[in-house]
Design a protein that fits this description.
globular, Probable allantoicase, Allantoicase, purine metabolism
Length: about 325
């Protein structure tokens, strides 16, 4: 089996769990468009028939009897720079589209689907096969808010994954009240000791985890070490409140945890000293240190799972400039 590209480790900007939505499709007779952005891997059960035929966990259009193609528009839950796209035709074997393309656009506010314009091709028309994942690297380096999947001429696609780096809109940021570790604000996981059960990016995802699998969980340790994850903050800032959430982790929560900050010189300092944790609990700790941080490291002792990490605080003037400049640099149309 071919190994997935490294960019598939980046967040899925389109996923329903981060706020994505399939806002329009020209046809969805056999299977609903919303399935395209569901987080779970596609499932299939033989001989499961509804009123319109075999039930598929994906988006499936009717057979075309005329010229043309089918389209679906996805609003990204996390607008940002797209690094790669996965078009997954899992379980679509005799009814997959032979070709697909992906376009993207950047829109202000909350436009209706028919108000979107200035589409740019990020994945040109490319051949597809049935029942497999197709990985397409994207080179366009700018911020997008929507993507449009086109299939030629018709058929079924199980999932559309849009992996990339979120870019926050500075007009929607309050510099004095911000989660500096939030994926939506531009933070990212840069290193991790172990991701056996789940991805550490889940720690900084939007919203509350609804099940254990939506957090970060490591394998059981059989040595004297401990597990950890490093995060590059959205921009330089001062951490005022730390939230360590072990919700849903009951027999596998860490016994203790600590948080360290790192400044632009590389110097580390304690944000939260090693502190005892309880299972299935949202822990909130007031932070009195006023030093600027650019990175943070969460250590859990010795191993286990954490649902979310929130580092609430304020941007420094340099931090606000960083977020503003990032947005403007990545909002220019491709020339």
């Amino acid at each position: 089996m071919t190994q997935a590209p490294g960019w598939t480790r980046l967040p899925d900007l389109a996923c329903r769990s981060v706020g994505g939505g399939v806002v329009w499709a020209n046809d969805e007779l056999f299977a609903e468009r919303e399935n395209l952005i569901r987080k779970p891997e596609p499932q299939y059960q033989t001989s499961t028939f509804g009123h319109k035929g075999q039930v598929y966990d994906g988006w499936e259009t009717r057979r075309r009897r005329d010229t043309g193609e089918d389209h679906a528009i996805v609003r990204l839950g996390l607008p940002g720079v797209i690094k790669g796209v996965v078009v997954d035709t899992a379980f679509f074997k005799g009814n997959y589209p032979p070709f697909a393309s992906v376009e993207a656009t950047s829109a202000e506010g909350y436009p209706a689907p028919d108000e979107l314009a200035d589409w740019e091709t990020v994945v040109p028309r490319s051949p597809l096969e049935g029942d497999r994942k197709h990985h397409f690297e994207v080179s366009a380096h700018r911020r997008y808010t929507h993507v449009r999947l086109t299939i030629y001429p018709d058929g079924g696609v199980a999932r559309l994954r849009v992996h990339g780096t979120p870019v926050a809109d500075p007009d929607l940021i309050l510099p004095d009240a911000l989660d500096l570790a939030a994926l939506a604000n531009g933070a990212s996981v840069t290193a991790c000791s172990n991701m056996f059960y789940s991805d550490p990016s889940n720690l900084i995802a939007p919203g509350q985890a609804t099940v254990m699998g939506e957090g970060w969980e490591t394998a059981r340790r059989r040595d004297d070490g401990n597990d950890w994850v490093e995060i590059e903050l959205a921009a330089p800032g001062v951490i005022r409140l730390a939230e360590l959430d072990t919700s849903h982790f009951k027999g596998n929560a860490p016994g203790w945890a600590s948080v360290k900050g790192r400044d632009r010189t590389g110097a580390e300092f304690d944000v939260l000293p090693r502190t005892r944790l309880q299972p299935d609990t949202r822990h909130r700790f007031r932070i009195d240190d006023s030093r600027e941080a650019t990175h943070a490291r969460l250590d859990i002792y010795p191993d286990g799972g954490m649902a979310r990490l929130r580092l609430l605080g304020s941007l420094t003037p340099d931090g606000l400039r960083t977020i503003t400049q990032r947005f403007h640099d990545l909002s220019q149309p491709l020339g």
